[in-house]
Design goal:
alpha+beta, 60s Ribosomal Protein L30, Chain: A, 30% helix
Length: 115
């Protein structure tokens, strides 16, 4: 599990790696890129896919803004995975806007999904 921006580590479900973003941020920092490199390394030599679930939340912004920000975060993580050699068809991206699972509102969760 890795975090970006806020120093606090947010717990993730078993098998899920989490990147936490500062409110309004969409770019990966060094810790986020390190997590992406780790996920890409674990995918090498397998047929597994990586699920990317992106979230964004803010008390002051519209639902549309939250969905667009979550999409930009997810696309940045996807781009980083591609840069690390993960094939595009092995990346399943879902931009979900605000979370409804009680987790941090500004995050991207990554999970390796066996095929």
């Amino acid at each position: 599990m890795a975090t970006t921006a806020p120093a606090a580590t947010a717990p993730a479900a078993a098998g899920v790696s989490r990147i936490v973003f500062a409110d309004g941020a969409e770019e990966l920092d060094a810790a986020g890129r390190a997590l992406v490199r780790d996920i890409a390394a674990r995918l090498k030599g397998s047929n597994d896919r990586v699920g990317v679930k992106a979230f964004a939340d803010s008390a002051t912004e519209t639902l549309d803004w939250k969905r667009r920000l979550s999409l930009r975060r997810g696309q940045n993580v996807r781009r980083a995975l591609l840069d690390e050699g993960v094939q595009s068809f092995r990346i399943v991206l879902r931009a979900l806007g605000p979370p409804n699972d009680g987790g941090p509102g500004n995050r991207v969760d990554l999970s390796i999904e066996s095929r």
